[in-house]
Design brief:
Elements lengths: L7 H19 L4 H23 L3 H8 L7 H8 L1 E5 L12 E8 L2 E8 L5 H6 L7 H17 L3 E7 L6 H5 L2 H12 L6 E10 H5 L6 E5 L3 E3 L3 H8 L6 H8 L3 H6 L5 E3 L10 H16 L7 H17 L1
Parallel strand pairs: 3-4, 4-5, 5-6, 5-7, 6-8
Antiparallel strand pairs: 1-2, 2-3
Helix pairs in contact: 1-2, 3-11, 4-13, 6-8, 10-11
């Protein structure tokens, strides 16, 4: 498993446990060794609990970016039956940074769209690290129209550093493509549920988070710009990223306090990357809960939700 910098004390204990377990596979452990193994296992769990209970905003960014966190494709594989991928924007081409399609969630037809970051070097390059081009957002627009036409609920999975900012993307209308997604989201009559499963960055995330219900995993983040980008603008140095992360209020807990999201979904001890299936199942339960109230998740509800956010900050 990929170990984050602040997890190194935990790694040292794991190495000791692994050494004793390996020894136990070769010869029967003495009582003092079995007692030591129990002590180390208890210490490991307590240390992991202490580490993850006191994460700084920057450390949460690191967890949200962990390469082994479950990706959109993992959620689709476990939660969606009869998955049919739908590709292309009918204008320029297919953008693999966003996976889109339709299937059945516990017997209910749904439209699913999510950023896809990839799991290894090859797939990350294929999916452009989850940074979508304009054709990706035009594909989202097309599927929002499809959902509206047939009355299918929409599930968004948000996990991107931001929309791709290359010259080609700007030439093909990146800002307009994102704006059109926002506009279309306020026209779709069927329910929209958005789940921030990792890093929700910039307009690339907002384009897929204009929803009736916005949920965030416990250690995910959601912000208008990355901490590195913010630090480069304010302090002219990306080295100030920890200060930027603190100032941005980008954690799920901050955003819940600001009433910009609806609910935080707890992650297993040590983060989603340590228990991917448990994390996916927890999200599945939340999706089922809110789809069970889909009659309340109307277009009017969505519009009022975002108008209330604006009024809140105008009067604060």
């Amino acid at each position: 498993m990929y170990i984050l910098d602040f997890e190194k004390p935990y790694l040292e204990i794991e190495d000791q446990i692994r050494g004793l377990e390996t020894l136990g596979m070769q010869i029967p452990l003495k009582k003092k060794d079995r007692d030591e193994l129990d002590r180390l296992n208890n210490k490991k769990e307590k240390l992991l609990l202490q580490i993850y209970k006191n994460l700084s905003p920057w450390q949460k960014v690191m967890v949200a970016r962990h390469p082994e966190r479950p990706k959109t494709c993992d959620y689709i594989a476990r939660l969606i039956d009869r998955w049919v991928p739908l590709a292309g924007d009918r204008c320029f081409g297919e953008d693999r940074a966003i996976s889109t399609g339709m299937g059945f969630f516990r017997g209910m037809p749904v439209i699913i769209m999510g950023h896809e970051r990839g799991k290894d070097t090859e797939s990350r390059l294929e999916h452009n690290f989850g940074m979508a081009h304009p054709e990706g957002y035009r594909k989202v627009y097309r599927l929002l129209e499809l959902a509206d036409r047939f009355g299918f609920p929409v599930l968004f999975f948000v996990d991107t550093p931001g929309a791709y900012a290359g010259i080609g993307a700007e030439e093909r209308g990146q800002a307009q493509a994102i704006a059109q997604c926002l506009e279309r989201s306020f026209q779709v009559k069927s329910p929209i549920i958005s789940l921030v499963i990792g890093e929700g960055g910039s307009g690339g995330a907002v384009a897929m988070a204009t929803a009736n219900v916005i949920l965030m995993l416990q250690h995910s983040v959601y912000s208008v710009i990355s901490p590195e980008g913010c630090a480069s603008i304010l302090w002219r140095s990306a080295e100030k990223r920890q200060e930027a992360a603190l100032a941005q209020k980008l954690t799920a807990q901050d955003l819940k306090n600001l009433r910009l999201i609806d609910e935080i979904i707890p992650e297993p001890l040590g983060g989603a990357h340590r228990s991917p299936l448990a994390t996916i199942d927890a999200i599945g339960e939340k999706i089922a809960f809110y789809l069970g109230k889909k009659e309340d998740l109307s277009l009017t509800h969505r519009r009022e939700k975002f108008l209330a956010m604006g009024r809140q900050f105008l009067t604060s």
